[in-house]
Protein: Peptidyl-tRNA hydrolase
Organism: Inquilinus limosus
Amino acid sequence: MLLFVGLGNPGAQYAYHRHNVGFMALDDIVERHSFSPWKLKFQGRLADGRIGTERVLALEPTTYMNDSGRSVGEAMRFFKLTPADVVVFHDELDLAAGKVRVKKGGGTAGHNGLRSLDAHIGPEFWRVRIGIGHPGHKDRVHGWVLGDFAKADEAWLDPLLEAMAKAAPLLAERAPEKFMTQVAQATQAA
């Protein structure tokens, strides 16, 4: 069993923020792979499904980004999962918009959602880093991540989210390199 976690902030006012791209990615995966309807559990929204032969739980913490680890830790303990069974989808300033990288473990790079996860479950979970680009200067970062995607971003964002949902079976098979390759190939053609 795997736990796929999308990071974001709950509420309609945050739905299209760059910081919520983790929620967006997970929503597309849940829809594409016909997961159960969302239910409220573990201080978040939880859906259950299968991707390939693997049972996958999808969790979107409703605790707000800065306290995401509480929700994830609760779900992990209930299902007796290890950090290696957790795959977290999150925004990444240090990647060009539309790029995706997967790695296990690592630092938080100032990301409060990752910082909370590290505090609650440790750093050895899988991270699907979704590039949102950088605004150019550190003084503009806060407004950038908490701002909506621009209309022009749809040209790369929609194909990226679709490609990630389509390639999700490779994550479920624990083949992150193949996942990154398939997403890159699909989005280069777009």
User: Anything to note?
Assistant: The longest strand covers residues 44-51.
